[in-house]
Amino acid sequence: MNGLLQIAIKLLANDRGKFFTLIVGITFAVFLMMQMTAVFSGVMYRSGATIYNVGAQMWVMDPSVNVQTDSIPLPDYILDAVKSMNGVKYAIPFFSSGGLVKLADGRYQSATIIGLDDATLYGRPHMLSGNLYGIYNNDAYIIVKDAEYPKFNNPTIGTTFEVNDHRGVIVGTAKALVGGLFGTPTLYTTYTRAIADLPTSRFTTSYILVEPKKISDIAAIKARVNALGYVALTQDEFISKNKNYYLFKTGLGMNVMIMTLVSFIVGLSIAGQTFYTFVLENVEEFGALKAIGAKKNELITMIFFQSSVVGFLGYGFGILLSSLVIGLAKLRLPEYAALVTLQNLVISFVMVLIIILFSSYLGIRKVIHIDPFDIFRG
Amino acid sequence: MILEARNIVRWFGGKENMTYALRDVSFDLDYGEMLYIVGPSGSGKTTLLSIISGILRPNSGTVTVKSKKIWELGDDERTDFRLYSLGFVFQDFHLFPKLTSRENVAIPLLLQKKSWEESMEEAGKTLEIVGLAKRVDYPPYKLSIGEQQRVAIARAIITKPDLLIFDEPTASLDGDTGKKIISFVKENILTDKHAIIVVTHDNRIYDYATRIIQMEDGKIT
To answer: Which of B88, B98, B103 sits opposite A15 (nearest CB)?
Structure first.
């Protein structure tokens, strides 16, 4: 390492109080920013749980649908129309709704009930126990063994319950790719049984799942569905629609953004003020360096390097701490939704860069304006 | 001749409140000289020192150091001139309190892009010259004022500059320590390969000068 940069680091690191204040301040800010954005990412991810778990390439829905859980039943003729469209390999009905389940001990528990197409069982879950085809048995349901599973009194194969006065029996357990957001256990059954057991409106299809023949057919299918007055979205588009609803129409996104900004401002204030004080305390020494023969760009480099080192150390510790806390929380609370994504890491990194630039700017502004003549004048 | 200052004029303020700090000051300095610039506060000593150091631009006049007119150099060249040709000992030393003596002394070499190892080794040797071999790893605040002064001297001489500039070197020292330091500088640092300028108004150390310039109201008297 360049000797001057080594001096720069020693200057700061030997001022232990400020060095640790800077690192702790940035670590804390990064930790808070990461927590906020990670929880938000987790919530967003889980809000699209059924879309991920079913895995259909395209979803046909009413244009008024905002989120997957609030489906608007589609008339039966839409299914027939979509099935007959050019470019559609197959189209199947899909049912998804909330239901109130009466458990064997008399307690009521709300659940998400998914009705799979009887003929294809498209969107089937991965079985953990029992046989998938047991779903065709009388009153059969498969339960997802996720964080919400204990709310169903940890049922085993053969456990019975009631759905809307209809008998239900567990024929297997399955695992879902993504856990749901709303803290309710998930039950899978056939489409026919779902609409028979649950109270429904005149139309019963929540969504139509479409498999295009080729990727290039997607645009044409969308256009044809639009012509019918409905909307066809790819899986990614539906997930985005879902996320955008929570992000922009529920206040959740704004709240998370405000909290993230508050965390950023906390970090910025601590780092900016501490670093500025550090420079201020050494300002005459920096002035002496100027008199001795240090060029402006060398002093700027020294200060920028100092703030970068504390910034990146704080970033590293912050990421480590937040990952640790999220990991520990997930051990204790399996339904904890926080999710560290590349996007969270980049957001925090950019904010740390801003903190570094701001702190450096404060210090550099002070140092480049020192007149070595003032050092002689005392 | 190491330095020629000719007809230096410097004023501060605008047209209405113009104050002359230096009025047509000229002097020469030879190798091997220890020149004192003395005079009361406000006589223009510090302004003159800043101008001959390449820090404060004169309104008129020339300063030639080793045949180079320093105020005709570009900013970076003048900064390099200070780094390679001058050594400064400031009144308040201006040592970094969080660095060791050795690291403080090594800074000019590091500014000259010398390696860390080479700079530290040279700093250790220089501290030995000023009698602080056992204090190399002490931060300045753990040293006495006299020792801090020696560290500042070591920092000034480590680059083996042609011209050493001492600004009020005894202002923070008691009489005895001040004399010891100046005597040490004269006996151990001054050679016929360079020169020293000392700005002071401490008449207790006048005996060590090879020549004294008296200033008053911005003029050499």
So the answer is: B98
